[in-house]
């Protein structure tokens, strides 16, 4: 694998700006403000940048779901480590997620949120790996489409590392090995 930068800092800001404007336009005439729900931990940097470009009032909450096992394979059940605590009944909800890959995580999360009787659940994703889709899930607000390949940086992790990198890129073999070593060292404390 070769390191390949997909989006630099400027490109990421441009994407966040456009999405912020789209969300502003969509809800600006609604009498009741929407609720933005960020999906921890991957969407955290994205959420922080996105909200700078939303020029309407909104409430905010977070969920954490681990359907990815921290590795390279997506599992099929939604494990909700943290649910919403804010009451979303009769509210428009916008789920803010880092990436939609197979679509399972987002679909299961949307289904889960609908059980709380919101008005509507919309989805906003920074990246869309459309070629990997396994369930018919289309996000309402999409930052950019990407192809196959494991993405890291700007919230995207490999084994919980690399979320702090400012660019979004495909991990290379050297970094892959370096992180595996860090994981190994961390495990020695178990
Ligand atoms: P899905 O259920 O297959 O759509 O998986 C979505 C979740 O898998 C996202 O919330 C991400 O956390 C994670 N994920 C998918 N692709 C990548 C990737 O390329 N890098 C890092 N995380 C990813
Ligand atoms: Mg995620």
| Alpha carbon gap, first and last residue | 30 Å
Helicity, as a percent range:
25-40%
Mean pLDDT value = 93
> How big a fraction of the residues is strand?
25-35%
Q: Quick one: how many beta strands?
A: 9
Task: Characterize the largest beta sheet: strand count, sense, and whether it forms a barrel.
Answer: 6 strands, mixed
What structural category do the secondary elements indicate? alpha/beta
Order of helices and strands: EHEHEEEHEEEEH
**Rg calculated over all Cα atoms:** 17 Å
**What is the count of helical runs?**
4
The small-molecule ligands in this entry are: inosinic acid, magnesium ion
Taking pLDDT < 50 over at least 5 consecutive residues as the criterion, the unreliable ranges are: none
Oligomer: single chain
The spatial strand order of the largest sheet comes to 4-3-2-5-6-7
Q: What overall form do the CA principal axes indicate?
A: globular
């Amino acid at each position: 694998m070769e390191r390949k930068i997909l989006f630099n800092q400027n490109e990421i800001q441009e994407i966040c700006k456009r999405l912020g404007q789209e969300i502003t336009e969509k809800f600006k005439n609604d009498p009741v403000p929407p609720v933005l729900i960020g999906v921890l931990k991957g969407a955290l940097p994205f959420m922080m940048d996105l909200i700078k470009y939303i020029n309407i009032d909104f409430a905010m909450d977070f969920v954490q779901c681990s359907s990815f096992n921290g590795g390279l394979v997506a599992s099929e059940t939604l494990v909700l480590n943290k649910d919403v605590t804010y009451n979303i009944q009769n509210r428009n909800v916008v789920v803010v997620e880092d990436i939609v890959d197979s679509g399972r995580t987002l679909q299961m999360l949307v289904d889960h949120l609908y059980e709380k009787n919101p008005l509507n659940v919309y989805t906003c994703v920074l990246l869309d790996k459309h070629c990997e889709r396994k369930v018919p899930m289309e996000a309402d607000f999409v930052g950019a489409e990407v192809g196959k390949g494991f993405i890291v940086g700007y919230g995207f992790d490999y084994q919980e590392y690399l979320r702090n990198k400012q660019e979004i890129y495909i991990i290379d073999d050297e970094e892959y090995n370096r992180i595996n070593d860090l994981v190994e060292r961390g495990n020695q404390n178990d």
